[in-house]
Every structure is written in C-alpha cells, then in structure tokens.
Amino acid sequence: MITQIYKRSLLLLLTISLVACSSRQNTNLVPVEIATQQATTDGEVQVLITGGHDTDPRDGGRPVVLIASMLGVPSEVFREAFSHVHPAGAGQEPNPIQVGLNKDALLSALSPYGVTNDYLDEVSNYYRYNGKAGETWPETPATATAILTDGVVTGFVITNPGSGYTSPPVITVLNSDIKVTARLSFTTDFGTNGSIAEITIDP
After folding, report:
1. Burial code of 165-187, b = ≥16 C-beta within 10 A, e = fewer?
2. How do residues 7-54 score in pLDDT, each as one tens digit?
C-alpha cells in the first residue's frame, strides 16, 4: 500500500515538474514584429511620359518642325517651299520629271539658307514614314523622375531627353494630380532634335 502511494506521489511530482518546465520555456517566447515600409516621402519617383507627336494640320502628317530644324530654316519657310511640291499619289511610282520639279521648287527656297541637294535628301529620307502602315518617324522615348520632398513633388530630373517629339508630351506622376509642362528643344542633330529640355511645375 505504501509502495503504491509512493509511486503515485512520484508520478504526480514528475508531472508537476514537466508542466513547470514547459511554462518556463513558453515565457521565453516573444512575438515577432514584422516591420512595414512606409510610403516614400523623399527621393525620386518614375514618371510616365506619353504623346508628343502631334503635327500641324497644314502639314499632312509631316513632322515639319523636325525637318525644318535639321535644315536650319524656320518652319514657315519649309512649309512655303513644300507648298509648291506635288508628290506622287498613294501607291503610285513617282514620275522622274515631277521629282526633278519638286526638288527644284524646294531648293529654290531652301538653298539661300545653305541647304544642299544631298543634305535635303538625307533629312527627308530620315523623317520619311508610312503613316497608313502604322509607322512613325524615328523617335527615342524620354524618361524622367519626379523629386519628392515630404511627399510633395518639387521638381524633375530628366534621365533621358529622348528625341523626335513634335509637341510637348504629357507628363504624369503616379498618385499625383500635379500639372506640369515640358519644353522641347529642336536642334540640327538627329539624336537630340525634338528632345525634352525642361519639365516645370505649372503655377
């Protein structure tokens, strides 16, 4: 009888010891806090640049502002010179005689500005495209970032000015309704003609 009581007491003591050990182990466990990154309030944010390829309705889709800049003449001068040109119709082979007359009409107006026959061909061929086939003249998309200070857009950094823009593109900053304006630069270099020179915040 005493032996059975002793065994039961020993078993009870062992059970209490295991529970106590388990409790001490659990008190060493602490919850893990998962840090969450707050929204950026300072730094730079990528912006979206779209459009910027509008042409004057008088030009029939030709990027006159780009062509004239490369030739070193005002757009109105090139526009007037081209008004005397009679290109072949869609799907028609150009008549050699008419091609010569067209070239004479252009050079008579452009040669006083130093434009030669070869350079006129180079520029014209570079910006020639088939709009009906969904083509556009050569262009390089621009990229830029918005500068954030305390969550507010305070300026822009142009990371690639691009080229081939004929009208100011639309600049969109993610999660912002800020209004901005892009100013273009027209040069005599194919690689920089029609590039974004500056992005400013509208007042």
Report:
1. bbbbbebebeeeeeebebebebb
2. 444 444 444 444 444 444 433 333 323 222 334 567 888 899 999 999
User: Which of 199, 191, 197, 200 is CA-nearest to residue 66?
Assistant: 191
CB of 167 closer than 8 Å to CB of 57 = no
Instruction: Answer for the pair 164, 139: CB distance below 8 angstroms, yes or no.
Output: yes
Supply the DSSP symbol for 65: H
* Cα dihedral 99, 163, 196, 52 sign: positive
Q: Which two tokens stand for residue 188?
A: 């005599």
CB atoms within 10 A of CB 20: 10
> pTM for the full model?
0.75
Q: CA quadruple 36, 39, 42, 47: dihedral positive or negative?
A: positive
Q: What SS3 state is found at 198?
A: strand
User: CA–CA separation, 16 vs 8, rounded Å?
Assistant: 12
Question: SS3 of 47, please?
Answer: strand
Q: pLDDT, tens digit, for every residue of 135-175?
A: 999 999 999 999 999 889 999 999 999 999 999 999 999 88
